[in-house]
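Section 4.2 – Deliverable D4.2 (structural model, holo form)

The reporting period included a commitment to supply a predicted holo structure for the target in complex with magnesium ion. Inputs used:
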Amino acid sequence: MNPCTSRLLIVDDNEMNRDMLARRLARKGYEIAVTHSAHDLLERVKLDGTDLVLLDIEMPEVSGLDALKTLREAYSAIELPIIMVTAKNQSEDIVRALDLGANDYLTKPIDFPVALARIGTQLSHKRAQEALKESEERYALAARGSNDGLWDWNLSANVVHFSPRWKAMLGYQEAQIGDRPEEWFERIHDADRERVKEEIAAHQKGLTPHFESEHRVLHKDGSFRWMLSRGVAVHDTSGNPLRMAGSQTDITEGKVSDPLTGLPNRLLFIDRVGRLVKHTKRRKDHLFAVLFLDLDGFKMINDGMGHLIGDQLLLGVAHRLEKCLRSTDTVARLGETFTVARLGGDEFTVLLDDIKDPDDAKRAADRMMKALAAPFILGGKEVFTSVSIGIALSTSAYEQPEEMLRDADTAMYRAKALGKARYEVFDADMRASVMARLQLETDLHRALEREELRNFYQPIVTLASGEIAGFEALLRWQHPTRGLLGPIEFIPVAEETGLIRELGWWNLRKACQQISEWRAGSLAHRHLSISVNLSAKQFLQPKLVEDIRNLLHELALPAEALKLEITESTVMADPSAAIEMLQQIKSLGIRLAIDDFGTGYSSLSYLHRFPLDTLKIDRSFISGMGDDGEGMEIARTILPMANNLRLDVVAEGVETLQQVAMLKKLQCKYGQGYYFSKPLSAEGTAALLAGDLTWQACEQTK
Ligand code: C2E
Ligand code: MG
Ligand code: MG
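Output (structure tokens):
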């Protein structure tokens, strides 16, 4: 604590004693005022802004004790600490002084270090009390407006003053709750208690600026209420907590109901399921089900028609769900009681209690799907929605409500994957596939750090000459336990998790490094280009163009050595944004290819609006060539058009010499496929290049 902020008043008629003490204290940083007469005190001279008074008892005219008495009537011991100074043998004076409200005393001749310590103690105590008062006032103010309860915990005595309102919030009269801290802690929910204690301890240690905690407290009526408790601790100079005071607010309402629909929220839902889970452990014949609902395509409605319409739809859905479960006009009984809750977003859950057999849950799912099938009229328009439902049954002997919800969620995902607008009942196999998928995600995160990714290279061959024109970089993952994995195994997961950006960038960088190395290695290889696949997520990154420009610059790689492959669906997702992006890439001098052409729905004439250089005909059309001729027909249509539009064509998946011959006849410029080479490791590719292999067979075909 900085003593400079404190002003001391020394009152002593002995000039020498007084001024010496004043000088020494001033050197310690205190602001000092002096006076020779206790009379000044009665007149309040020099008292303004004084934090502490050092008062000599033996004074002419007005004695120090008289002055003390008067001051105490005007100021409390905390507002104005007073340290009396007296001769050693005057013990009666000291007792009287303390009686009259002196905070402490010093004896003459004054031992300076002792004086300094006593002054320090008084001042820090005063400051602590002021801080506490301030916070109490703050909380009292807040509490008056919001019906909060107050608590004030004296840590050294370990007693807590709980305000009458604090007790009333828990259903008790003033006299029914004492002042032990346990009155509070013992009422806190088992699951929250340790955490609350840790939060208090953390604040007392000064680790948090204030204590703020949400937890459940037991009400007299046996229910738990959610409370928000806030407070501050007051410390002494050495940092030990002296007191802690704060408020308590009942936040149960906000905790248990969803503000939009007024339905129970996740917390309340989990609480109800939790009770049943416990109950079912004792009563094995008790059957209940949790249904997890997710609207299909809600995001599109919300984004497309606006959040207001989205909210109205959610309200409408909530309403229909409750109504259809409540209706009694069906013969089939769907459990004794039910709870519909909104978990958030477009997710709803339903708890069906006391059903007679698992089919009841399926029937409820059917009924809810039917109830949502009719259009909603929102903002004057008809809006259609459907729902995917996952069902978990209590027969799986759950330990925790969250597990049951999780399984229902898993089943819901399966329902989505199987085409949406349907329900699935959870089974253990679903769990296994989810676990495998989660494991893959975790592993994939580490794959980058652990350098488990590899680039393989597949030659792209000029069909007329049989020479290698370049390579396509294809990602592989050297998995620690599963061996070498192809992109089908992990790219979809990477796309979903967003990790594809890092993966894709790693691939692009590596491929560019590799090709510049090979190009530099031999004059004969100076023309080689590298094709790199870009995923939609990468493609939409605003910094992509700049990053690529920097990369090319860093590697001194000419832009025409790089070709980027994107799929039709990437381009078609947002054609106008795509054109802009493609033009930027193109302006760097990089060439662009449409990958897997023919598998999407866009026509060649439409695609021509994009600044493209190359079409890669999907291998499904090439592999058909030579057998029944169907694939052949497609190649026969595409190739002349592409040539007209001055697009290069790469035939993917070329596997036979016969296909090579036909493609040449159709004037297809490039081929890529197992006929020439499978994708090779970097070493394998280097060896291939060293051999300067050309595919003689290409030249021989007519
Ligand atoms: P793609 O870009 O169409 O790559 C061609 C795929 O066809 C490669 O599969 C290649 O091994 C395979 N292939 C080549 N010739 C033949 C053949 O003669 N017969 C058969 N049956 N297959 C052939 P791969 O390496 O499994 O890659 C699959 C897909 O994964 C790629 O298709 C590409 O879309 C994606 N991919 C690979 N690497 C990356 C990457 O770094 N980033 C992104 N975003 N996607 C990548
Ligand atoms: Mg490709
Ligand atoms: Mg392809």
